[in-house]
Design a protein that fits this description.
The longest helix has 22 residues. It contains 9 helices and 11 strands. Helix 5 packs parallel to helix 6. 38% of the residues lie in helices and 24% in strands. The strands form 4 sheets. Strands 3-4-11-10 form a 4-stranded mixed sheet, with helices on one face. Strands 5-6-9 form a 3-stranded antiparallel sheet, with helices on one face. It binds N,N,N-trimethyl-histidine (AVJ).
Amino acid sequence: MLTYQTLPSRHVSEFAASVSEGLLKPGQRELPSKYLYDEVGSALFEAICLLPEYGLTRADARLRQKTYYFPIEISPSALAACEKELGQIDLVSIVGYEQPYLEGLRAVAQGRDEEDHLLVLFLGSTIGNFDRAAGEEFLREIREILQTGDALLLGTDLEKSVETQLRAYNDAAGVTAAFNLNLLARINRELGADFDLTCFEHEARWNFEERRIEMHLRSMRRQGVKIPAANVRVMLNEGETIWTESSQKYKAEEVMGMAERTGFRCEGQWVDEEWPFAGNLLIAG
Ligand code: AVJ
């Protein structure tokens, strides 16, 4: 409250004081250049950078190293959205690969020049979808594709209270439930199945042994389902579940061991203050 009330007036008085000081200076009068860059001034400066006469900005850009970003993504719509969002940045060239992660990474690595360095981004705790052994195997395979000194920025969601974790996967608005049930809807759409979505409920559970959240779809009654394009019929018992996703949760210290066992070393770890989650910088050893 206080800052809100005092900030504008302090700003105004500071500006006023600078203006009067500068204009009353003996000899050369002056005004501090920082005041050129208000909202309108900043927009005008952006236009200046485009002027043919103003070569400075383009020279600066020419001297900077170009960075390539190769999004690897099996969903063409996500890939297109990525290219649209990041395509504006001048110094970043985007070349999308519509492939599974490791195949895409292999293609990128094969196309690199000798002096190029790779920084692989594997964010959002997507690694949590693999069970722990498979996650390590995945890191090992990434390492195999990389050269010594290349880097991997790995996002890992950290263990927190079971209650908070369950709420994250069973939100009040039912968005995660819809996300989970959509898998059955998709099978209906694409494979001509006859899942009755009203006879399934979303379930999130915490698996204590494996330290992971599991999403399940629970059949609320005994029911048969036909999936013509897959050429199967299934009978589900009342209460039986279909396991649809796992999200392993990690301890911050655990990541160092994972790195060591897979041919990396963990050179940096940043843990968010609001939501236990770590960004880990792994360097290929
Ligand atoms: C994108 C796989 C990291 O496991 O937290 C979110 C997916 N599933 N809510 C996760 C997800 C349900 C998410 N990952």
